[in-house]
Amino acid sequence: MARVYLDHASSSPLRPVALEAMLPYLRDHPADPGRLHQEGKVTRVALEVAREQVAALFGARPREVVFTSSGTEAVNTAVYGALARANVDADGGSGATVVTTAVEHSAVLDAAGRDPRTQVVTVGVDHHGRVDPAELLDAVDDRTALVSVQLANHEVGTIQPVAAVIEGARERGVLVHVDACAAAGHVPVDFGALGADLCSVTGHKWGAPKGAAALLVRRGLRLPGFVLGGAQERARRGGIEDVAAAVGLGAAAAELAADGSLAREAAEARRRTDRLAARASAVPGVARFGDPDPRGTLPHLVCLGVEGVEAEPVLLALDQHGVAVHSGSSCSSEMLEPSPVLAAMGVDADRSLRASVGWSTVDDDVEAFATAFPGIVERLRRLRTT
Predict the structure, then answer these.
(1) Treating both helix axes as pointing N-terminal to C-terminal, what angle do 243-257 and 16-27 enclose, rounded to 10 degrees?
(2) Angle at CA 60, nearest 5°, toward 228 and 164?
(3) 135-149: per-residue pLDDT in tens?
(4) In whole angstroms, what is the distance from residue 310 CA to residue 314 CA?
(5) Measuring CA to CA, which residue among 240, 347, 367 is closest to residue 291?
(6) Per the CB 3.0–4.6 Å rule, which of 59, 79, 238, 280 could disulfide with 111?
(7) Which phi-psi region, left, alpha or beta, contains residue 8 (left: φ > 0; alpha: ψ -120 to 50)?
(8) Which pLDDT band holds residue 336 (cuts at 50, 70, 90)?
(9) Would residue 199 show up in a list of annotated catalytic residues for this protein?
(10) How confident is the model at residue 94 (pLDDT cuts 50, 70, 90)?
């Protein structure tokens, strides 16, 4: 039985163009890009081409792109740097606050709360998972070192009003970090147009390799480094660069940036998730979480609430039918605990199922889910009543 993979929002298969671009730097070009010999120049050129490709996809200048090992590292770098800039770091200081939302990824919330002397102000959201910009900005005061807001939610797909948040924070003279890791590669992300100070992006959710991500840092902004021990990335991130991963990220970015590919993939993803949601919602007691207006959600993911059945047995039964989906965020799967995002939205956090499509998804994948799902829910409900 062929497997069906509908968990692209956690991690997507590697695009062929990325693999082909990476192979020479895994096999033939081992040199440190910081060296002056010919071999080092080869890897340096490859790294800077990748930087240009990533910058082009995300509306940034190449010098604003800092390669990191993951979106989580990019987020931590942004949060740590902002707090250290305000003289609040792991070794001392007090009084600064980070203002964010209750539905942020754990990378944001955990990084902001790492030092107990830093106050983290989390602002609630509505039933669709969207924050009110005015309420968020009301929490900003003269102690605020950073406002961090996601571009779109990683579990339900709700797109946040980041433009209003950024404008208000800039008027107040506060740094703004946008976590675009869930949105990057699925909707346009234009760092220059956003006007944010910092923006985290990652590649493995849209066909770039794992271990390839970036923090976009506004030109002229100086932040203390998070990873120390070298002058790499213009002294903004110590440690030898993973050239192959960066090259793969750049190649995937170039493919998406070319000839309207991002828009075409987004349209195909929307068509498939709309179909999946319609088929699933035809089952009594199944509802879609997040914004009901497609313009307000990411195109590639669907979060479903299944009345009367907990998520874990549905997920495992689908897996037995050869269909891979997820419940909750990609970083909570080891614990299978109730989703804090859905709890903040005021919906049942124990019964959520997330299905997500990607560049390699075909219509038959959606059909496989739609065929298996109703019978699984019916059987599990029957078991609970016998």
Answers:
(1) 150
(2) 100
(3) 999 999 999 999 999
(4) 7
(5) 347
(6) 79
(7) alpha
(8) low
(9) no
(10) low
Annotation: CATH topology of 16-257:
Aspartate Aminotransferase; domain 2 (3.40.640)
- β partners of residue 177: 148, 198
DSSP symbols for 316-364? HHHHHTTEE-BSS-TTSTTTTPPPHHHHHHTS-TTSEEEEE--TT--HH
The model's pTM is 0.94
The phi, psi pair for 7, rounded to 5°, reads -135, 40
Which CATH number fits the domain 4-12+262-385, given the four candidates 1.25.40.10, 3.90.1150.10, 3.30.1360.70, 1.10.3720.10?
3.90.1150.10
Residue ranges per domain, the chain?
4-12+262-385, 16-257
Q: Is the model's pLDDT at 210 over the cut of 80?
A: yes
Q: Which amino acid type is present at position 165?
A: V
- From the candidates 181, 199, 303, 331, give the one annotated as an active-site residue: 331
Q: What is the DSSP letter of 299?
A: T
Structure tokens at 264: 């075409």
DSSP 100-115: EETTS-HHHHHHHTSS
